[in-house]
Amino acid sequence: xxxxxxxxxxxxxxxxxxxxxxxxxxxxxxxxxxxxxxxxxxxxxxxxxxxxxxxxxxxxxxxxxxxxxxxxxxxxxxxxxxxxxxxxxxxxxxxxxxxxxxxxxxxxxxxxxxxxxxxxxxxxxxxxxxxxxxxxxxxxxxxxxxxxxxxxxxxxxxxxxxxxxxxxxxxxxxxxxxxxxxxxxxxxxxxxxxxxxxxxxxxxxxxxxxxxxxxxxxxxxxxxxxxxxxxxxxxxxxxxxxxxxxxxxxxxxxxxxxxxxxxxxxxxxxxxxxxxxxxxxxxxxxxxxxxxxxxxxxxxxxxxxxxxxxxxxxxxxxxxxxxxxxxxxxxxxxxxxxxxxxxxxxxxxxxxxxxxxxxxxxxxxxxxxxxxxxxxxxxxxxxxxxxxxxxxxxxxxxxxxxxxxxxx
Length: 408
Description:
The chain is α+β, with helices and mostly antiparallel strands. The protein has helices spanning 5-32, 43-97, 104-125, 179-184, 217-223, 293-305, 311-371, 375-400; strands spanning 146-148, 154-156, 164-168, 171-174, 187-197, 208-209, 213-214, 228-235, 238-245, 251-257, 263-266, 269-274, 282-290. The strands form four sheets. A five-stranded antiparallel beta sheet has the order 5-13-8-9-10. Strands 6, 7, 11 and 12 form a four-stranded antiparallel beta sheet that branches. Strands 1-2 form a two-stranded antiparallel ribbon. InterPro entries: Flagell_FlgL, Flagellin, Flagellin_C, Flagellin_N.
């Protein structure tokens, strides 16, 4: 068989390149600390490595979600604890107001502090989390949930939603509570009402309606659950209003001469309209069996500011204090229940975090077995490949130097 010089050189260079490629691959494996550098190295292992890396990335996201939920729940629990402290202070002031030796001026001093506490409560109920979302606004996290209406009473502008965050493939945890369920949907001690200004009123500046109070519970219970409309009109003698039963249109009190700020009484309730309404303007007295925490405090302030020192007035005031304490009990119970739910969720978060940490350790162990380089083996291979390469160079040099002309 004839072996040409070109073939001899080609086979020698090919052999050297193969050994050199193996050497470079080993060096790359050592620098990257990985034995699988491309899918071609081990297709099955490469597929499994990709899956495991995706599982680790998902696990990392779940752990970030867990941290977010935990921070939100702890912050929310702290806010609820502070709100409860303020409610307890309002309770103390309510009990102090029941001292029969106090006169109207003394009660106004108590009212002044409770007004400050009311603002404090509203501020805490409008707390924002680290991302600027309102904690108790439901899904309406960008809008302040508790806002004052035209009359200065607090109303809830959020919704009944709760924001959930996924912390595991099949586990979603509520990271927030809505203010409606925690602070608004509370059972009132007795049948009660709230007041509203008609949305279509034209007066500018708008007239307002006060929070009011029940002054004759039996009379109001007999009227409940009906609502009332106070409808203004012009007459020859000036501005008047009718008090109308909402459902039937029956006029309960016709042609009443309007005096701004004068007490208006009907069906066992009392309130005031202040300002200069126009003919056609309406105000509403809406019956309800529920009473929010802020409304409870507002009605207490109204009762303190409108204390009547007569025996009948004292009876009305004592009934208000009794109802206020009952309603504050409901508020504290709601907060306690909410905090217990938060505690249960925090326990779930803790156990899920531990589970994810265990999964992370096991996944990394499997991933390490698949892709991490055995340095002892790699160094041995590198030494062998260097030896083979040097031998190939030496052999190539000697073989290519052989010639028949050296024998002539």
